[in-house]
Automatic annotation (TrEMBL):
Keywords linked to the UniProt accession: Amino-acid transport, ATP-binding, Cell membrane, Membrane, Nucleotide-binding, Transport
Compartments (UniProt record): Cell membrane
InterPro entries for the chain: AAA+_ATPase, ABC_ATPase_HisP-typ, ABC_transporter-like_ATP-bd, ABC_transporter-like_CS, MetN_ABC_transporter-like, P-loop_NTPase
Keyword Cytoplasm: no
Lineage: Bacteria, Pseudomonadati, Pseudomonadota, Betaproteobacteria, Burkholderiales
Protein name: L-glutamate ABC transporter ATP-binding protein /L-aspartate ABC transporter ATP-binding protein
Organism of derivation: Simplicispira metamorpha
Length: 243
């Protein structure tokens, strides 16, 4: 579903991604972790071309993202992205937040968009809040609306960039629960997160990135958590700090 081949990227002279290669098969959940500044956000943003790359290839569902001829708005309409900050439109109601892109990008009718949006809102357990504005919801609820909004677009993959790290601790669980549900339903997911409980529970693979934007580990969940002796020193140090 997603393939990165020898991807490198620079910001000016600074190399932020160095020869990154990996693939994510349909239905796989891949967790990306690593120290701050190691290029995790940049890597995940290259997948829907929010960040351009200078070398290598990125393929999403057989579409060459690196190819200048690729229709990027069309690609992005199928790739769900959830950021650390929820980025809901503050002046629109929850329902309007859920429907606007369906109408403007996918060309759905208002009725169809509302039906789909409310179905997804129900999934994340927030039907009672459909007429509220984002500012009237807690951070955890806003993030669940952001997930429902992405799901309303019928994404073929979901990308998450530290979706729980801006939340108060008591709200982390409700967002992770929604993500666990998605994983169990077979959604293809790439998640930048340091929630190792989530990684242990549902990931198929764990990628560890290190400074300089290098993929230092790309291994199965079992290898990552149950065979620490085989991990690189940098990975072990990192895990010792966060676990
Ligand atoms: P992470 O998500 O792992 O913390 P990022 O992908 O956000 O890492 O950033 C990787 C490195 O690239 C950091 O050193 C950061 O300062 C730098 N960086 C990120 N965005 C830009 C930008 N737009 N211009 C220049 N440098 C950037
Ligand atoms: Mg980041």
């Amino acid at each position: 579903m997603i393939e990165l081949k020898n991807v490198s990227k620079w910001y000016g002279n600074y190399q932020v991604l160095t020869d990154c290669s990996t693939r994510i098969n349909k239905g796989e959940v891949v967790v990306v972790c690593g120290p701050s500044g190691s290029g995790k956000s940049t890597l995940i943003k290259t997948i829907n071309a929010l960040e351009p790359i200078q070398q290598g290839e990125i393929w999403v569902d057989r579409v060459p993202v690196h190819d200048p001829a690729t229709n990027l708005p069309k690609l992005r309409s199928h790739v769900g992205m959830v950021f650390q900050h929820f980025e809901l439109f503050p002046h629109l109601s929850v329902t309007e937040n859920l429907t606007i892109a369906q109408i403007k990008v996918l060309g759905r009718s208002a009725d169809e968009a509302k039906q789909r949006g409310l179905k997804m809102l129900d999934r994340v357990g927030l039907m009672a809040h459909k007429d509220k504005f984002p500012g009237q919801l807690s951070g955890g609820q806003q993030q669940r609306v952001a997930i429902a909004r992405a799901l309303s677009m019928d994404p073929i993959v979901m990308l998450f960039d530290e979706p729980t790290s801006a939340l108060d601790p008591e709200m982390v669980g409700e967002v992770l629960d929604v993500m666990v549900g998605l994983a169990h339903e077979g959604m293809t997911m790439m998640c930048v997160t340091h929630e190792m409980g989530f990684a242990r529970k549902v990931s198929n693979r764990v990628i560890f990135m290190d400074v300089g934007g290098k993929i230092l580990e790309d291994c199965t969940r079992d290898e990552f958590f149950n065979h620490p002796e085989e991990r690189q020193t940098r990975t072990k140090d990192f895990l010792n700090k966060i676990l």
